[in-house]
Amino acid sequence: MAALENLREHWLVVGTELLVRATRGICDGSLVNAETGRAETSARIEEWSGVLSLYAPVNELESIRVSA
Description:
This protein is mostly helical.
């Protein structure tokens, strides 16, 4: 009976360790994905900022025509 209890405790420790390792891997992957997403978003914002600056005078002229 004590051997069975000892075996159950051993598997509980092993199972817990496997769960912790798997969760750590998921968390690390999530952090990498988040960092990649932030970098891509920042690059897109910079790209669109450059494009929008080309159209700013056109938008201002249209708003002047509409308000006049």
